[in-house]
């Protein structure tokens, strides 16, 4: 079973004072690349949050965000009475010294001064953290489910591409006898034109022909290609993560296809090689998004 690295999860937790939203987005990446955007209230829990995410979502570029909306009066700024009284006292003293009558303007001016307003920052309670932690786990599970479902779609596409590669490989067998015959006829024709039939040593010619044809033999490449395709299918059935292994096998498949193409020396086989390369490119695109 394979999993995609793409996924999205969202969960909402509510307390009497807050509405907390957790969102997780995952894209493909060579390793785990986790970015978090946390409010100040949950910063102390960042290591634990990162551990929760990394345990379930092994790899990918993951962006996680937690934000909340205040439902009650929690977080509303309040007047810092001690500071305001101190400012007022100082302003009265200055006004008296300068003989200025402007007491009605004191308060608006004081409220704009530093520390005149303060916001009480509540502590994160155990009950709230337990609720948020459960919702984080819910979001992670949603991402994982999304990955599994997309992985099924990717697997269907990959199996279809592999089937077409195997089909093209079988078709190569049909052109093998004709290919050898054409190579033989072409060599005979070249020798006849340049040396004449009477000057050809048939025994020596047959020996050289065998050596020459060995260079163009593709039986080993066909066997290896067939084995690589079988191993690829076996690896698809292994539980994730298996994306890196599938990518390596795809590279080996590509090497064998390229070697068959370079040795083929036949237009019909070359067409099949091009078709196999096209299907392999589709597989490589998909393996880049497999966990």
What order do the helices and strands come in, and which of them pair?
Blueprint: E1 7-14, E2 18-27, E3 32-37, H1 46-56, E4 60-70, E5 78-79, H2 81-98, H3 106-111, E6 117-118, H4 126-195, H5 202-215, H6 219-236, H7 243-264, H8 267-287
Parallel strand pairs: 3-4
Antiparallel strand pairs: 1-2, 2-4, 5-6
Task: Briefly characterize the structure.
The chain has helices spanning 46-56, 81-98, 106-111, 126-195, 202-215, 219-236, 243-264, 267-287, and strands at 7-14, 18-27, 32-37, 60-70, 78-79, 117-118.
Describe this protein's structure.
It is a single chain. With 291 residues, the protein is an alpha+beta fold. It folds into three domains: 7-74 and 129-148, Ribosomal Protein S5, domain 2 (2-Layer Sandwich), CATH 3.30.230; 78-118, no CATH class; 153-287, no CATH class. Helices cover 62% and strands 13% of the residues. It has a four-stranded mixed β-sheet. Helix 6 packs antiparallel against helix 7 (243-264) and helix 7 (243-264) packs antiparallel against helix 8 (267-287). The radius of gyration is 37 Å and the shape is rod-shaped.
